[in-house]
Amino acid sequence: MGKENNKGLEKKLQVQTMFNSIAGKYDFLNHFLSARMDIRWRRKAVRILSAFKPASILDVATGTGDFAIAALESGAVKITGVDIAEEMLAMGREKLAKKKLSHIISLQSGDSEDLPFPDNTFDAVIVAFGVRNFGDLQKGLKEMHRVLTSRGVVVILEFSKPRRFPVKQIYGFYFRHILPRIGKIISGDASAYTYLPESVYRFPEGKEFLRILSECGFENTLQKKLSAGIASIYTGEKRLHVNKTK
Predict the structure, then answer these.
(1) What does DSSP assign to residue 84?
(2) Which of 36, 82, 149, 157 is the most exposed place for a label (fewest CB within 10 A)?
(3) For the chain, which domains are there?
(4) Which pLDDT tens digit goes with each residue over 92-108?
């Protein structure tokens, strides 16, 4: 158990350092390296979120706040974003100030595995491209469950791996060879865009991730594949009675 905790802490520190180092180029690289598909994926996730009519939303691993801003289309009256990378939050606060959204969206430092909020606080918890970075995935998901209200929903946008020829082969080559090189040149950080494909290929996607969501207290879990399986939207509703595990 001690080794697992140490690995989780090491990963968390690695992620924090990495995202702080690329904060200034993060938004540009996100849009450029995905050919702006990330924007369309967020919009699709928000359309799903809107059906639940959340008044309050927590955006975990908010980064520079792109998903939080997109989530305004759901009709929410208050959105809170948390992240462990302070440089990313600084970029996000600057963006919100320019858009005059600081009165609706607030960003604060916060650990996904120890959220600084009481139980039953938010109608929805959202995450875009962040759950695969959790040091302890199940602990983070259980925290998300804890802070949701009784009618709460989780909406998670995450990379996945396409299975069909030729998308699988093209995606694999681009993701492993082209993306890290471009990311290194533009961001100046060699590790960040090497970490990205490695983290995606390690992530327990699809049915396995739906199983983990269920174990962490969510029901009616669904996966919606996007762009031939390059990304997925996962949803789940808070199950009120959760079996306690050690």
Answers:
(1) S
(2) 36
(3) 2-162+204-238 (3.40.50.150)
(4) 999 999 999 999 999 99
